């Protein structure tokens, strides 16, 4: 398994931007599909975006056009650039990894970071 550590969360006003980073340990980072999920209080963990080893990306409809997922395999890091943030984006954001699966079911991902809080005020 790969160990994951997120950073970059914080508090912003609506319309602002944040960039999340997720640093991974392990020599086989490039083999993993990397993804971001989020969980708001009282809600189920939901898919945000995923990226394959060669850069193919998927996004939740709610973030398309506003969020961009990317990865740097040389640095073992995946990023989530979040623009035009809305109050409904407020949640704990989690980085996760899987060997092949890039879908929206969080139960099929194997490794998880500790999460980073994103708060968007109106």
Say how many strands there are: 11
Q: State the end-to-end distance.
A: 39 Å
Question: How helical, in percent, are the residues?
Answer: under 10%
Q: How many alpha or pi helices? A: 0
* Major sheet details: 7 strands, mixed
Class by alpha and beta content? mainly beta
Helix and strand element order = EEEEEEEEEEE
Outline:
By secondary structure, the protein is mostly beta strands. It has strands at 4-7, 10-13, 18-24, 33-39, 46-51, 57-59, 67-72, 77-82, 91-98, 111-112, 116-121.
Overview of the structural elements:
The protein is mainly beta. It has strands at 4-7, 10-13, 18-24, 33-39, 46-51, 57-59, 67-72, 77-82, 91-98, 111-112, 116-121. The strands form two sheets. Strands 2, 4, 5, 6, 9, 10 and 11 form a seven-stranded mixed sheet that branches. The chain has a four-stranded antiparallel sheet with strand order 1-3-8-7, with no helix packed on it. The radius of gyration is 13 Å and the shape is globular. The mean pLDDT is 95.
Defining key terms:
122 residues; mainly beta; 7-stranded mixed β-sheet; 4-stranded antiparallel β-sheet; 0% helix
What's the structural blueprint in terms of helices and strands?
Elements: E1 4-7, E2 10-13, E3 18-24, E4 33-39, E5 46-51, E6 57-59, E7 67-72, E8 77-82, E9 91-98, E10 111-112, E11 116-121
Parallel strand pairs: 2-11
Antiparallel strand pairs: 1-3, 3-8, 4-5, 4-9, 5-6, 7-8, 9-10, 9-11
